[in-house]
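Cont'd.
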Amino acid sequence: MKWIVYLLAVVVLVLHQDYWNFDKATLIWGWLPIGLAYHAAYSIVCAILMALLVATTWPKHLEKLENIQRPGQSSGEGH
Amino acid sequence: MNPWLEQWLPIIVISLYLAVVLYIGIFAFRRKTTGEDFFLANRSIGSAVFFLSLFATNMTAFAILGSSGLAYRRGIGVYGLMASSSGLVIPLTLLIIGTRLWGLGKRFGHMTQVQFFRDRWECCGIGTFIFLLTAAMLIPYLIISIVGGGTILEELTHHRLPFAWGGAIVALVVMGNVFFGGMRGAVWVNVFQTLLFLAFGTIAFVTIAHNMDGGLFGTVQKMAGNQKQVWALTRYRIPGREFASYLLIPLSSIMFPHMSIMCMTARKVTAFKKTVVLYPICIMILWLPCVFLGALAFGQPKVNAAIAAESKTAKAWLDSGGKLPDGKPAPLTILLKQAGTPMATKLLGQVASHSITSEELGKELPIAVGPVKDDALKGKLVAQVQAMANSNTPDSVLLQMLKIYVPALLAGILAAGIISAVMGSDCHQILALSTMFTKDIFDHYGGQKAFGDRANVYVGRAFIVVANTIAYFIALTRPPIFDLAVSWTFSGFAALAPVMVAALFWKRSTKWGALAAAIFVAFTVVGTGYLESHFLPMVPKGPPPLPDFSIWSIAGHHVLVLSAPAGKLFMFGFMPVVPMVIGSALCMIIFSLLTPPPSEATIRKYFDPGSDDVTNGFTRSTPRPTIAV
């Protein structure tokens, strides 16, 4: 699963270069330029990719450090 | 609305906002604070506040004003160029680098990048060099923030509040907030700023889109059908290699000291999860309206006229009474005479008698040009105004749209939001510089041992006052060089990313590799700056498209060119960031392989999986409750 997500990340990286929209002024719904619509959709795809990366590659070992307190660190309130 | 109220309402709203920012700093004040509490809010920031604050730290004036200004000149492609690339790269760096930095802070108490580098590579002087390099690249930001804040206040008060006073107010409020509140004050201001901006930004976007001449739908349709304006709805003015280069720029984000320090403030590493996933969506919510409005502004005569009136060409036209240096009438004067509308004649009379300001010119030009019936003449007049607007650096395009299309109260709130974006990042930057100076210099060279932990806080606060005062006095001269410097520093910080990646993930990396990479970055940042400033006067000027200026070519192939008219350096069509990142990575690899690695003990300390357990004097404590905001 991890490798599929890595591969997906590479595909998303490549898809950023939408050279085919370079000089297209097609309007989606009559008001949204295709170049802008493409990258807006791309941002949503990025959020989905990040969710997949968090689910598969999260550095879980770091969570062990959450409850430690070094000497000298005051116990201030949270925010 | 009452004209008096219309003029002063934005100022009243902004004053209230500034008072709130100052109050937040004072509210966050802790009398008996420790270094860790002052500089890192005691590493206790909850996940919601962490996400909003981290996002706001990147939500700079550059993102808001700069993006719409750039879209005005280069079209909607600016979103893909800067926003969607950031939406991919920044969360990735937060996930891969940010979480590890958080872990290092928890395990070893590091607060700055240099503290980590020094310990990881067993070095002292090299750490100091990296401190100097990062501080030198961050300082222009501080100055730019004060210049930006002062300019916005001057602009919104119709020059009633001079730039010097506006800059002083911004500098004092930022200084007060950070001096009293430290990281806690900066974080709360950022949360306030993000909520304010996201809420009122959406309302302002809808209002501008509704109130602009022809409405959003009409403007887009009109531009799509106009051969001279349709480029703004495409990526036509952004070459492919430049577009590809921009994917590397967001690597700079995590390397900015205030961002990496911010990563160490989270109470739990799980706070990063929400941030990483939501970051691309927030980038879209912020950038998409800014870029879209900036591009559409090109199809709005009122906005074009307001921006054109601010240009140097327009100011020279006004100063000369509508004449060229040789005494002949300027092209705009000739065209307005031919137009012959009552308003055009009145305008020419005002220009000849020097009785009109550039702000009035911006309002009167569309009224003079609008009624012209001859399409060819009208086209020439519009082209002349757009050429003048293009000669300007139209970072004020969003402010102009606010002034023209949005009611005064909402414009005031939004302007407060824009100022808050300037100040929110400014708070973090000044605090980061103060943290770096205190930890990497004062503390490292024996200050804490000699004077105790409380001295750290006093030194940090003293540094904030001194640095901000110096930055203010430099900002008073409005040095244009810092505008350029800021654009170089993005590449510089991006090129330092390989150093951080090597420190975190490559056992064999050495201090000499880090030094070589840092020297390479310093050399290329200064080199880029030198080439751009030295050859800028030779770059062709005028309305686009213009031929680029070639600095160096081999057998007819351009190696180094400056783009026209902006004067930005490109190597084989790529931005300097590409060779800088590759060169820095190569320096890191080659010099690390040629020199001995750090001691086994140090490598074990950072890479032994067992060392993630609680060791070296760490104690477990019961989890503290997180108060969500």
